[in-house]
Write a structure and sequence with these properties.
heterodimer, A: 494 residues, mainly beta, Immunoglobulin-like, Cathepsin D, subunit A, domain 1, seven-stranded mixed sheet, 4 helices, 6% helix, B: 182 residues, alpha+beta, 6 helices, 27% strand
């Protein structure tokens, strides 16, 4: 078969297989056809991140195998493609010891392509820095990372920066305005019970709520990628949310609307807590005011939603390293630090970099809590909560020293002298582990320090919320429920 | 008519008057053994129970609890009664003075109770405090503290585990410690 006919045959097989955006079988890169015409051709390449192992082999359109060396930061295929021709970059062979994923790997070459991203490894950077809220509205102890989201079953992806890493919640939530700015539209979930209706979600917090559509997305972080799409919440941070958040007896509106980047000092929330879904069985029956079925005219009513459709933990849906995470932040001085840089590692005990080592495993109860023993009394409902910016616990002495309004007022403690305190944490499995901490006078800590390890505040009785101060200077493991080590309700280890 | 409205005044929620300081009052997350005996209708997570509001009269709740009234009586050990309302896995407690006024409310459950209903005329204060905290200290959503001479409110938790307390210092009976409010 002549070269020209072979190219046509390859193109036809692509169309028949409806594989416009994915790798076409057979047919190599179609360079210039024989004869005198000069069709422009373009190179196909892109970036590589996190590649520490050797042996990675990429292919374009199922051919043109390219070996990428360890620690490479970019790649380019040797064979160009004709202008307008399809390209599809895939992984032929994974490197030794780690996993890579291709993002933005397919398209049509209308110029030299440098946008393919090969993302490797089981960890991503986490930075405690001033967040994306308006200047002057940023707050301390907000751990931020980047998350890549993709339209399901496509290579259309966008990387969203400055997403809050939250071990106290479950599920990925992104501000609609940020997705829009990234040029990505994720498909809204249809109501399986009512044709024409879509699913929206109201998520309550202690001080307010978020409201927005439930959508489906592929999630990629480092070399980890979800095998099947997961449900995520798109927080409607437009001036006039549509449909509007329901009010009244069946309503969502309670407290302050948190539908904004400013509310979280982040572009979204990556909930990587112990549970698989954000609501669970409380939302599979009855009509809790969490999930809503909304008509095209904007009328919304509470509905229940099967577990498989609820907003869920992206880590649980990763193809590999999916049983939990490890959050590691450096130690910082008592006076605080301008910022801190650490890592979020995927998997617990699945790779050489995420073993428990001598960390003590504390299993959680049905609420996702363990017991903290402090000051001679039990706080039966406690958790390790990276999405909380202080150590929140009731203490009759510290409650006598609330901070001045300029330092947060009654939300924080401001003792005149730094307190050296210690507690013991106890899992449902009976294992115990000590925890020492300090509570300093927040008013004395520089307001340009966004990493602070000794800030505390009040909480209802019986609860000890170990916020980000707990995480500095150690590796903290969050084990998902329904895993071997996580047990029924998940576990924490440090 | 929404399902919630239709059932609002049915005996579809469990109201138990407890003697403060009794085992009934100290139970935190367990269903009360007495509740099972009385046959409270539990597991109705979709319904907002009829509740007296903070600072309001408890009479409206008592009127609806005719079927349960008299099962548990206050022994007079402490100068208040506790009315517990269970709706699915949400537990709301209303602390009532002898004069029948709700001086404190607490809540615990995987989802928030209807705070507009529970806090009554004080809901606007909660709303304002939430907005003010959001502006003063953004990024804090695990707890909201409001401490004023006439109202103390602490809303805390996250989905799967909310808990809170609100009380009116002026109405707290003499000798009662706020640590008893759980």
């Amino acid at each position: 078969m002549s070269r020209a006919l072979r190219s046509i045959a390859a193109a036809a097989s692509c169309l028949l297989a409806a594989c416009g955006l994915v790798a076409c079988g057979g047919g190599g890169g179609s360079g210039n056809s024989g004869g005198g015409s000069h069709t422009p051709s373009f190179t196909i390449g892109g970036s590589v991140s996190g590649l520490t192992g050797s042996g990675l082999v990429l292919m374009n359109n199922g051919a043109d195998a390219l070996t990428v060396a360890a620690n490479a930061t970019s790649f380019t295929f040797t064979t160009s493609v004709a202008s307008g021709a399809a390209y599809a970059v895939t992984i032929q062979t994974q490197p030794s010891g780690e996993q890579c994923t291709v993002v933005n790997g397919s398209g049509m070459a209308s110029g030299d392509i440098t946008s393919v991203a090969v993302s490797c490894g089981n960890s991503v950077a986490v930075n405690v820095v001033p967040g994306p809220a308006s200047a002057g509205s940023q707050t301390f102890n907000i751990p931020l990372t980047s998350v890549t989201v993709c339209v399901p079953s496509s290579s259309q992806c966008a990387t969203i920066q400055d997403v809050l890493v939250d071990s106290g919640s479950t599920g990925l939530r992104l501000m609609a305005s940020v997705l829009k700015a990234a040029g990505l539209t994720l498909p809204t979930m249809s109501d399986p019970n009512t044709p024409g209706n879509t699913i929206h979600e109201c998520v309550q917090f202690a001080d307010g709520y978020t409201w927005g559509a439930v959508a489906t997305a592929g999630v990629v972080m480092g070399g980890e990628a979800t095998g099947n799409p997961v449900s995520v919440q798109i927080i409607d941070d437009s001036a006039t949310p549509s449909p509007a958040a329901p009010t009244g007896l069946n309503g969502c509106v309670t407290g302050s609307s948190l539908n904004s980047v400013n509310a979280f000092d982040a572009n979204g929330v990556l909930g990587i807590g112990v549970f698989d879904q954000d609501c669970g069985t409380d939302c599979t029956q009855g009509a809790a005011h969490v999930y809503y079925s909304c008509s095209s005219s904007g009328s919304c009513a509470p509905t229940n939603l099967a577990l498989a459709n609820q907003v869920s933990n992206p880590v649980a849906a990763f193809a590999t390293d999916n049983d939990g995470v490890v959050l590691t932040l450096p130690a910082i001085p008592a006076a605080g630090q301008a910022s801190a840089n650490g890592t979020l590692t995927f998997g617990v005990g699945t790779e050489s970099d995420n073993g428990l080592g001598n960390a003590t495993l504390l299993t959680a109860d049905q609420y996702g809590n363990f017991i903290t023993n402090f000051g001679g009394q039990p706080y039966p409902d406690s958790l390790l909560d990276s999405g909380s910016n202080a150590l929140y616990f009731a203490d009759s002495t510290l409650e006598q020293s609330p901070c001045p309004q300029s330092s947060g007022g009654a939300q924080f403690y401001c003792p005149s002298a730094t307190q050296d305190l210690s507690a013991e944490n106890q899992g449902q499995n009976g294992s115990t582990s000590p925890a020492s901490f300090q509570i300093a006078d927040l008013a004395q800590i520089s307001s340009s320090n966004f990493a602070i390890n000794d800030v505390g505040g009040p909480m209802t009785a019986g609860y000890f919320d170990w916020g980000l101060p707990f995480f500095y200077g150690q590796s903290v493991f969050i084990l998902l429920q329904n895993t071997v080590d996580g047990g029924t309700y998940g576990a924490y280890a440090y | 008519m929404s399902p919630v409205t239709r059932f609002r005044f049915a005996t579809a929620r469990c109201v138990i008057r407890c003697a403060a300081g009794s085992v009934c009052a100290r139970a935190r997350r367990r269903r009360l053994a007495a509740a099972s005996a009385i046959g409270c209708a539990l597991g109705l997570a979709s319904l907002t129970p009829a509740m007296a509001a903070l600072g309001g009269s408890a009479d409206s709740v008592r009127a609806d609890s005719a079927a349960l009234r008299g099962q548990l009586r206050s022994t007079g050990l402490v100068p208040y009664d506790v009315q517990q309302i269970d709706s699915g896995s949400l537990t709301v407690r209303e602390y009532v003075t002898r004069a029948g006024q709700v001086f404190a409310v607490t809540w615990r459950g995987p989802l928030l109770p209807n705070l507009q209903q529970l806090l009554g005329s004080y809901y606007a204060r909660f709303q304002a405090a939430a907005v003010a905290a959001h502006q003063a200290s953004p990024g804090i959503h695990r707890q909201l503290s409001l401490v004023r001479p006439d109202l103390v409110l602490l809303s805390a938790g996250r989905m799967r585990d909310f808990h809170g307390v609100a009380y009116l210092p002026a109405l707290v009976p003499a000798g009662v410690s706020v640590s008893e409010l759980q």
